[in-house]
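User: Thanks for the earlier help. One more: M23 family metallopeptidase. Can you show the sequence and predicted structure together?

Assistant: Of course, both are below.
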Amino acid sequence: MPTAKDAQVIRAADIPDAVWEPGHRGVDLQASPGEAILASRGGTVAFAGVVAGTPVVSISHADGIRTTYEPVMARVRAGQKVRRGEVIGVLADVANLPEHARKSPGLSWGARFEGKGRVYIDPMTLLGSVRVRLWDVPG
């Protein structure tokens, strides 16, 4: 799990069949601004920076999967090796992000195969057997 606590899923993955179709290419997990975000698996940091106003960390794993965490203020740098459970950054406060970057009140965590086609997968499948609990989000 990419958080120190057993985070609640506030929005489940809805991976579309085709890359151009609408959907939700990851999960949103309950987390608070300033909370430590952990590498869900060991690998090499592929990217740590800002994309369209959103701080992002991506990790490439040996099996060809890349996991992405946002909005996360990086405590790692591109090329750095990380282990599962290692702190990679802290959750940014969405109130300080541009309007278009305020997608989720918590951590957005995604995963995809980096080969041809960049196939997205539900990152929860990387954890093995887990209990998923969905909660209503006010508003």
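User: Great, one quick takeaway?

Assistant: The domain at 9-126 is CATH 2.70.70.10 (Glucose Permease (Domain IIA)).
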